[in-house]
Fold this protein.
Amino acid sequence: MDHPETSPHHPKTPRAPHSSPKPWAPAFAAMMMVLVLVLLKVVFDQRSDPAAVDASPGQAAAAGPEFCDGTGDAERQRLLRGWALMGRTVEGATLADLLVDQGVCLGVESLAYNCGYARPAKTWFGGGWSKSVVVFGAECLQIASDDVVAAILVHEAEHIRRAVDGEACGRSCTVLDNGIRLEEEIAAHAAEARWWIGVYGAGGRYAWSGYNYSIDDLAAAYRRGPDAFAAFVRGFRSDAREGSGS
């Protein structure tokens, strides 16, 4: 149907007379728009820039991590920036301390699909866990922001903690068709989500990149309760492309 003001079957609606616009009004409106955009950018940057996150709130691990052989200098620097942010929550700092105390090294290798994996391994003599490793995917490390690196380190450190504390599900795990041990991933992703919520709150980071959106979605699912979170984790960890790494 034609609009009454433009249809040939309806007369145009008479317009009330109005005063001429002030000559300075367009410039003033443009200036106000620029000011609003600048203010919005400042607020957004403070929310979304991982550099705005305080990396030393007094909870960070007492010592830095041990690196596995073959980890390059640039890779170490990226991992260290994420490591520093782990201490933004008490749980994150505790997990970082556990890796140091157990002598677990951080390494980097090329992974086809996942961003990282943890391999808990107990030593034959002494019963320690110094043979354990946390490995970050080289491709993921190249593009992930520091806070995403921290969240993934928290995830992998939770795998180590569960093994050290005897909480790993072992043979009682629900094993998906792609080999993923579901209960272990639910626990590790829960630690990851708690860290993200602890740092950024319920609203997430309002980030634009896919990696951050996925963690925002993970955190939102965590807040919906255990059943919803377990279903969410099962859904995206059932991907047939899953290989080494978790």
Remarks:
- Residues 66-237 form one domain.
- The longest strand covers residues 105-109.
- The chain is about 50% helix and 5% strand.
